[in-house]
Design a protein that fits this description.
The complex is a heterodimer of chains A (309) and B (265). Chain A has 309 residues and is mainly alpha-helical. Helices cover 72% and strands 1% of the residues of chain A. Chain B has a single domain, classed as P-loop containing nucleotide triphosphate hydrolases (Rossmann fold), CATH 3.40.50. The chains are: A mainly alpha (309), B alpha/beta (265). Chains A and B meet through helix 7 and helix 8 of A and helix 3, helix 4 and helix 7 of B.
Chain lengths: 309, 265
C-alpha cells in the first residue's frame, strides 16, 4: 500500500491490478457454501424426476393421479394416489382449521393487546412449542389426545386422522402466531394513532386498520404453516396410521403421503421394483405441492406488501 | 383598516368567544418524571392557539394530553385537571374513545390509512354510527380541507398515491369528518414543502369560523401568521401565554422575548 501522508496537500494514487488474495479466497469459500446447498436441492429434484419418470413408464399418470385405490404392495396392485393425497389434505385442513384462528388470535393479542412485559414472556414460550421434536407430538396424540377424544366419540380408532390433525395444528400454531405477530407489529404505529384519534376502539383499530395493513405477512404465515403441515411426517405416521383411505370421516386410520414414504423407506421393498419407485413419485408430488405453496406465499408477500416509510 | 377599527374588531373577537378547554395546573409525568409542569391556560372557542417552544419543551406532550392520546404511552400519569365544556377529561366516568371523537388530531407526518381516499374519510364516521349520507359527508369534508377539486375523480384510488401535502389535507379532512369540536395539530407542516404549508395555513384560516384549533409548531413565523393566542413553553413550563400579537411584539417575560427574537431555540 502507498504510504499515508496526512495534510500535505491533496494526493491520490491509483494502483492498477492490485489483487487481494485473501479477499478472493474468502469470496470463493462463501460462494462454494452457497453453491453446495443449491447443488443439493438440484440433485434432489433431478433424482425425484428421474425415478418418477421410470415409475410413470410403468404406471399411467392417469391411473396415478385419478385412481382411488392405493395398493402398491399386494396383488392385484393399484397405484391411485388420491387416498394418500386425501389423507394429507385431511390432516392439513384439520390442522389449519385449528391453527389459523388460534394463531391469528394469539398474534393479535401479542401485537395489539399484550404489554411489553407479557409479550416478552409469552413469545419465547410459544417459540418453544416449535422446538418440540415432532415425534413427541405423535406420541402425545397417541397416548393423550386419542384417549381424550374417546370420551367424546367412543368408537374412535386407536390410529385416527382427527388426533393427528389436532397435534399438527398445535405444532404449526407457533409459526402462525410468531410470523403474524411480526407482520402486525411491522404496521407503523402512526396508523394506529390515526385510528385512535378519530375515536376508534382497540378492536376497531385491530380489525379494520392493523390486520388489513399487515395482511400479506399474515397470509404468508398461514401458507408457510400449511406447507409445514403438508410435509409433517413423524406425528402423522405415529398417530394417523398406515391405511390409505378415501373416506370422509376423520375417526379412522388413514395414511398421508409422508407416512407412506416412511413405510416404504423402512420396509424391505426391493430397490428398482415398482413399489420402490412409488416412493419417488409420491415424494415428487409432495415436493411439487409444498413448492407451489411456498411460491404463492412469496408472491403474496411481494404483491401485497404496502410500502411504508 | 384603521387602528381603532382593528382594536374594535379584536375586542369584539374576544367578546364572542367562550372557553372550550381549561387547563388547571396540568402536569404530565413519564414514569414519575415531569415532561409538563403545572400548566394552566384556556383554549378559546373558534380561535387558533399556537404552542411554541424549543425541542423537548413538552409542547407535543401537552397537546396529546388534550385528547388522551398519551393513554397509549406506558407509565404516563396526568395531574391537575383539563376541563372540556366544564367536564374533566380525566374524570373516572369519562370514556377516552368519546373524548377523541370530539377532539380530533392531525399528526406531524401525514398518516393516511392504506385504504381508498373515500374510505379514509368514511371509516371514522361509519364506526361511530353515522347515519346520514356518507357521500355528502365525504364531499363536504374534502371540500372543507380544500382537497375536493384535486381528488373528486379518483375517490376510489389508494390514499397512498397522493402527494405529501395532499395526504396531510386528507388527514385533516378525515379528522373534520368526525365534526370535532376541537382540532389538535401536532406540527402539521413540518414534513411538507413551503407550498403545501401555505395551503394548510390558508385552510386553518378558513376552518377558524367553525372549529377551535390548537397547533404545536416549532416554526415561529407560522405561529405568528396563523394563531390568535400563543403559548410559549420551555422545559415543561408554560412561560407565557397571551394574544399572539402581544407575545411576538411585547412579551412580558425576558425568556419569551429571547426565544421569539431567535436568540435561542
Amino acid at each position: 500500500m502507498s504510504d499515508f501522508t496526512p495534510n500535505t496537500g491533496l494526493s491520490f494514487s491509483i494502483h492498477k491490478g492490485v489483487t487481494r488474495w485473501g479477499e478472493t479466497a474468502i469470496k470463493f469459500w462463501l460462494g462454494s457454501c452457497t453453491a453446495l446447498s443449491l447443488f443439493t436441492t438440484a440433485a434432489i429434484v433431478v433424482l425425484l424426476l428421474v425415478e418418477s419418470f421410470d415409475f410413470f413408464m410403468a404406471v399411467s399418470p392417469i391411473d396415478f393421479f385419478f385412481g382411488t385405490r392405493w395398493v402398491p404392495l399386494l396383488k392385484p396392485s393399484s397405484y391411485g394416489v388420491l387416498p394418500l393425497l386425501w389423507g394429507t389434505m385431511q390432516i392439513t385442513i384439520g390442522a389449519a382449521l385449528i391453527a389459523i384462528p388460534l394463531g391469528l388470535a394469539s398474534a393479535i393479542y401479542l401485537s395489539e393487546y399484550a404489554s411489553n412485559q407479557v409479550r416478552a414472556w409469552i413469545k419465547p414460550i410459544l417459540e418453544l412449542l416449535a422446538g418440540i421434536p415432532t415425534v413427541v407430538y405423535g406420541y402425545f396424540a397417541l397416548t393423550f389426545v386419542t384417549p381424550m377424544l374417546r370420551h367424546v366419540v367412543p368408537d374412535i380408532q386407536v390410529f385416527n386422522a382427527l388426533s393427528a390433525a389436532i397435534v399438527v395444528g398445535i405444532m404449526i400454531l407457533p409459526t402462525i402466531a410468531t410470523l403474524s405477530d411480526n407482520a402486525l407489529r411491522a404496521v407503523p404505529d402512526s396508523l394506529r394513532q390515526a385510528a385512535y384519534a378519530i375515536g376508534a376502539t382497540s378492536y376497531e383499530v385491530t380489525t379494520s386498520i392493523v390486520v388489513p395493513a399487515g395482511l400479506s405477512g399474515v397470509m404468508a404465515s398461514f401458507l408457510l404453516a400449511i406447507s409445514r403441515a403438508i410435509g409433517e411426517t413423524m406425528a402423522v405416521t405415529l398417530a394417523a396410521g398406515q391405511t390409505p383411505n378415501l373416506s370422509l370421516g376423520m375417526l379412522g386410520s388413514i395414511e398421508t403421503m409422508t407416512a407412506y414414504i416412511v413405510q416404504i423407506s423402512i420396509g424391505d421393498t426391493p430397490s428398482g421394483s415398482i413399489a420402490y419407485q412409488t416412493l419417488f413419485a409420491v415424494a415428487a408430488l409432495l415436493f411439487f405441492i409444498t413448492l407451489m405453496i411456498n411460491v404463492i406465499s412469496q408472491w403474496i408477500l411481494g404483491r401485497f406488501r404496502e410500502v411504508y416509510d | 383598516m384603521a387602528l381603532a377599527e382593528f382594536v374594535d374588531a379584536t375586542t369584539e373577537k374576544k367578546q364572542t368567544t367562550e372557553a372550550v378547554l381549561e387547563l388547571q395546573e396540568v402536569s404530565v409525568l413519564y414514569s414519575g418524571k415531569a415532561a409538563v409542569k403545572k400548566v394552566s391556560c384556556t383554549i378559546w372557542r373558534n380561535r387558533i392557539t399556537a404552542i411554541i417552544g424549543p425541542s423537548g419543551c413538552g409542547k407535543s406532550t401537552l397537546l396529546r394530553s388534550l385528547n388522551r392520546m398519551n393513554d397509549f404511552v406506558d407509565g404516563v400519569t396526568i395531574e391537575g385537571q383539563i376541563l372540556f365544556a366544564g367536564q374533566n377529561l380525566y374524570g373516572e366516568a369519562v370514556d377516552p374513545v368519546e373524548v377523541r371523537r370530539r377532539i380530533g388530531m392531525v399528526f406531524q407526518k401525514p398518516n393516511p390509512f392504506p385504504k381508498s381516499i373515500y374510505n379514509n374519510i368514511s371509516w371514522g364516521p361509519s364506526i361511530n354510527g353515522y347515519s346520514g349520507s356518507m357521500d355528502e359527508l365525504v364531499e363536504r369534508s374534502l371540500q372543507q380541507a380544500a382537497l375536493w377539486e384535486e381528488v373528486k375523480d379518483r375517490l376510489q384510488e389508494s390514499a397512498l398515491n397522493l402527494s405529501g401535502g395532499q395526504q396531510q389535507r386528507l388527514c385533516i379532512a378525515r379528522a373534520l369528518a368526525m365534526e370535532p369540536q376541537v382540532l389538535l395539530m401536532d406540527e402539521p407542516c413540518s414534513a411538507l414543502d413551503p407550498i403545501s404549508t401555505a395551503h394548510i395555513e390558508d385552510l386553518m384560516f378558513e376552518l377558524q369560523s367553525r372549529y377551535t384549533m390548537v397547533i404545536v409548531t416549532h416554526n415561529m413565523q407560522q405561529a405568528a401568521r396563523v394563531s390568535d393566542y400563543t403559548a410559549f413553553m420551555e422545559m415543561g413550563n408554560l412561560i407565557e401565554f397571551g394574544e399572539t400579537d402581544q407575545i411576538f411584539t411585547r412579551p412580558e417575560k425576558k425568556r419569551t422575548e429571547e426565544y421569539v427574537t431567535g436568540r435561542f431555540g
